[in-house]
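[worker-b] picked up task from shared queue
[worker-b] task type: protein-ligand structure
[worker-b] ligand name resolved to copper (II) ion; SMILES cross-checked against name lookup, match
[worker-b] sequence length check passed
[worker-b] input payload:
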Amino acid sequence: MRSRLAALGASLVLFAAAAGGAAAQGSDVEVKDVWARATPGGAQTAAIYVTMASAAGDRLTGASTPAAQTAELHIMTLDNGAMKMRQVDGIDLPAGQAVTLKPGGYHIMLTGLAQPLKEGQNFPLTLTFAKAGAQQVTVNVQKVGAMGPGGETGNGMSMPGMNMPMKP
Ligand SMILES: [Cu+2]
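[worker-b] inference finished, payload out:
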């Protein structure tokens, strides 16, 4: 009995070591809730939103997708009462802190869409991180005007830093 417990203890230690090793190498960035809004009419641009977290800290430096000619990192800011957006070099992921791109703030801007984004579609997106390298994820297309990854609706007047309603 005593030796069995010792064996069990030893295997748990091995398991913990293996799990720790897996987390320490390869991609350190966890990516979830990757979504975009469906594009109305003949719109040529779209924005992608995503939640990312890195245990050790990292930086999103670029993105690409076959769905559009270009994918740029943008931030939307309120400037003299008008919403404006500009390109940024990267988006920092502080160690252990989830960063959520959402309407009214940071987003991945697509220009030159190959075709309109339709609700319910999925398409691939490659995110490039300074340390973790390239990571491919899938974008879920929500309805026109959606405010969150589950298709939450809002009043369309999103402001920087505004908290989005929680999923029901
Ligand atoms: Cu933009």
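[worker-b] attaching auto-annotations
[worker-b] The domain at 2-142 is CATH 2.60.40.1890 (Immunoglobulin-like).
[worker-b] releasing lock
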